[in-house]
Amino acid sequence: MGTKRQFRIWRGDADGGDLQDYTVEVNEGEVVLDVIHRLQATEAPDLACRWNCKAGKCGSCSMEINGMPKLGCMARMSTFEENETITVTPLRTFPVIRDLVTDVSFNYEKARETPAFAPPADLAPGDYRMQQVDVERSQEFRKCIECFLCQTVCHVIRDHDENKPAFSGPRYFIRAAELDMHPLDAKSDRKEYAQSEQGLGFCNITKCCTEVCPEHIKITDNGIIPMKERVVDRRYDPLVWLGSKIFRRGQVPQTFVTSEHSPGAVRSHAPSGGTHSHAGGSHDVKSETQAQQGVNWHREVPKPTAPAVDASGRLPLTELTFDRAAAPSPFGDDVTFPLPPEHLNFAHPEQDEKH
Amino acid sequence: MTTTTTRIERHHYDVVVIGAGGAGLRAAIEARLAGKKTAIISKSLFGKAHTVMAEGGAAAAMGNVNSRDNWQVHFRDTMRGGKFLNNFRMAELHAKEAPQRIWELETYGALFDRTKDGKISQRNFGGHEYPRLAHVGDRTGLELIRTLQQKIVSMQQEDKRTHGSYDARIRVFDETTITELLLDGDRVAGAFGYYRESGEFILFEAPAVVLATGGVGRSYKVTSNSWEYTGDGHALALRAGATLINMEFLQFHPTGMVWPPSVKGILVTESVRGDGGILKNSEGKRFMFDYVPDVFRKQYAETEEEADRWYTDPDNNRRPPELLPRDEVARAINSEVKAGRGTPAGGVFLDIASRLPAEEIRRRLPSMHHQFKGLADVDITKEPMEVGPTCHYVMGGIEVDPDSSAAYGSVRGLFAAGEVSGGMHGSNRLGGNSLSDLLVFGKRAGGHASTYVDQLAARPRVAVSTVETAVETALAPLQRDTGENPYTLQQDLQAVMGDLVGIIRRENELEDALGRLAELRERVAKVSAAGGRRYNPGWHLALDLRNMLVVSECTAKAALERRESRGGHTREDFPTMDPQWRRINLVCSLEGDTVRLDRKPLPKIRTELLNLFDRAELAKYLTDEELAEFDALAAADAAATEAAAAAATAAATAAGADTGAGAAEKENR
After folding, report:
1. For residues B490, B493, B498 and B504, what is the CA-based torsion angle, rounded to 10 degrees?
2. B319 given a catalytic annotation
3. Range among A243-257, B313-327, B421-435 with highest mean pLDDT value
4. What is the mean pLDDT of residues B35-51?
5. Who has the most CB within 10 Å: A1, A24, B51, B379?
6. Model pLDDT, residue B165
7. Residue ranges per domain, chain A?
8. B48, A73: Cβ pair inside 8 Å?
């Protein structure tokens, strides 16, 4: 038979609201969504809550239960203490519409901005041939049920609305990763796109997204990190760094590693000679100004320069001429800490008030 | 009075697609490809449609795994599964076009599981003679909906490049419900509804509407269907003057979870059985061998040993009886439970744990494993599941022209595809045929709706008075405060349908049900919803109830009328199939407020399609006179061939050449 359990549920709308207490009957084997439904059928018929399949397959009933983003249909009551008060609130990252329903249109906008699958031009329907091992990597990401729990938990946007324009979030990083790993996708600049347009660089791999994923997709390990690594391979190539040590800036022919490798790189060259989201060493007046104003993740800082090579196409370098015994700094040896504040991509929460 | 102060947002479109599941999205893609300005209306968020629940796969005779498969075999399986009540033309189109529709999905970015040579892998499923279901683990429906969703996004990106706006030519209205179709004479002129989020009204003016709203399962207590499945499309079509057929045929999926109670009804995919899972009663007996009906005896194994060999050597062994069509398995489980050999929760055991290594189970059925672990803390690699029949699918639906998907009845400009349309599956749907149905007829509906728009001389106009009526009807539950709580009414309706119009039906119970539905009709007419218009689930349900009720009435009336048992309709008082009833479709229409039921003869199946079957098999379904006709045709055919052969021989003899006989023989072959 059922027991009485204590619930606190956020009720309200865009204008505000608060937690309301409910005492509800709970039966063995029930989940939080069952309790919400019981409330709707009894004392709160207008309690707003999204749900569809009630089987963990559609990703509609996302909510925050005791502060943890979860699917209501998969939060078993047996996982809570009998005398525990269970607090249910709407997803914090998105604007509230009413009660537990939030406006998740942010996600759909980001989905529309992410370039779609590009079918290979020379293959007719029915002629696609792929090996199981090759499709499995993308299939993991296609398990995504779009519950947006990874989006709501991501600290880059959770309390920072101002980052939303420049940041697509984990859901769309794995979308990019999925297409990048698709054996037949005809577009080849998914990684560069993720870095330059989706804000992949903001992610500092706290793995919160992986932790909340109800489909157990290894968002960070299998999606974000491989994307970052490959972007880094190109952007932070030690040879690039060495080149810049040997030749002073400006002497090296203006070849850019990123654009060299992928002619289709998304961002156009800035007049100052390309862009680079690295925090250090900006010499561009425009981006300096932007940095002063606080957050602009698109501000332009110089790209690393390509290494200079000799006639044989190799670097004119041997171990003997190397001036240090240790590995170079991953941040670049010309960067010293602390960085000057105007070079930091950081916004103080109250800076708007100051302006 | 209310209308003068009510704000209504107006939109103009060429084609409005109601429903954003597989069929709706495929129809919208087609309409947009035909250059039509298209709106998609979704009751939920974009991409959350019930299609995601489909696990097993999409049936298409691509022949990737067994090259002997082709459209004729698929057609035969479909007709057999539907007990010959299918609209033969729909079954034919479906079998022929399904492979093309699946391949097309790959060009939209779908990633199906692969065979060793890199083609789309296909799996076995109940009722399909060869491995036929294209699949992605056990989340094929999700793959399908995501692929179509992403295709629409890619078209929107094209439009953004060429027209400057994502929404220029195809727009998704999510969390929007349509409450009424608006007509100009007998032509569709538009659709009226509300945004769930704000409660604001919205009016679409459009000459063509495609209904793709799915099924009616929410009228049942135990169902695998989500809240969206309230029969909206069925009811909208009825009120617009269209007709419904086969409404007595509901599919109860044999294996829904019965424990824990919170997830009662949720499906356990048939692939569990296709991959080796077996059904056992509380005595531990593998009982399905006792329930193989005569019609199927030839194709199914008689011993456990033979059945077990089939999984690895399907060419030389017959299939295990666990893979009988769904209706048979559901009835078998029902009988076992009734005989007292069920589990404590009222189901039977489905055991895969003792049949496959844990690792293999996790690989083949990942989402099943995850679902049971997450929802019920049951590990399917260690213990058996408790399963029982759950209301899953309605075979019946809007009566449509098989080629164009245009609704019959008095209305023009109305099209239907997917579960909301009827005829394709006859009295019982084969697993895997619904995903391919969505694609085949979604495309057809979208295409033909576009053609219809092109052929119109003038656009139908929406009359102000009809909009005013629609507004009043929609607001009524909010303005009453004396009526009943919509949730109570829904529970009562579910109880009536579940208890009296459920899996096994009896005449007196059906009569009782009709009486109760009439009482409920009065109560639903007076329902009141507390709260305001902003995202108010009570109000939404109050409006949906009207649809659920009228569709339930159709089901109950048709179930009372059909005095036989066939597929998804089982009458305890008429337990056998009657060939005379096979020739009859029951057609529901609306006369004023009441449901009217008519009998209508089934279209006559073309001879070359009939010839795909053995005479012995046809004898199980056809009436004596139909068989006589078949024999006469066959005799005439044989006579014609013989005559031709004789003529050839005569000619050859006349020519006096030995080679002539050889030629005649060749012709005979």
Report:
1. -160
2. no
3. B421-435
4. 96
5. B51
6. 96
7. 3-101, 105-247, 280-355
8. no
Query: Which range, of A197-201, A259-263, B70-74, B218-222, averages the lowest pLDDT?
Result: A259-263
Pick the catalytic residue from B76, B326, B505, B583.
B326
Residues in chain B: 669
For residue B498, the model assigns a pLDDT of 87
CATH number of A105-247: 1.10.1060.10
Would you call B134 helix, strand, or coil by DSSP? strand
Q: Which CATH class is domain A3-101?
A: alpha beta
Whether residue A347 has pLDDT greater than 70: no
A 10 A CB-CB count for B143 gives 28
Measured between alpha carbons, how far is B444 from B92 in angstroms, rounded to an integer? 14
Question: Where does residue A241 rank: exposed (0-12), middle (13-18), buried (19+ CB within 10 A)?
Answer: buried
Pairing of strands B201-205, B187-195: antiparallel
pLDDT of residue B637: 85
- Give the annotated binding-site residues of B: 19-24, 42-57, 232, 253, 269, 392, 419, 429, 434-435
- Asked whether B307 and B301 are in contact (CB, 8 A), the reply is yes
Q: What is the mean pLDDT of residues B452-464?
A: 96
**pLDDT per residue as tens digits for the range A41-79:** 899 999 999 999 888 889 999 999 999 999 999 999 989
Cβ contact B218:B364 at 8 Å: no
A11 Ramachandran zone, left/alpha/beta (phi>0; psi -120 to 50): beta
- Distance (Å, rounded) from C-alpha B125 to C-alpha B131? 7
State whether residue B289 sits within 8 Å of chain A by CB: no
In angstroms, what CA-CA distances link A220 with A100, A113, A209?
Answer: 28, 21, 7
Residue whose entry in the numeric block shows the structure tokens 């060495």: A242
Tokens 């023009």 sit on residue: B412
Mean pLDDT over residues B349-356, rounded?
93
Q: Is pLDDT of B655 > 80?
A: no
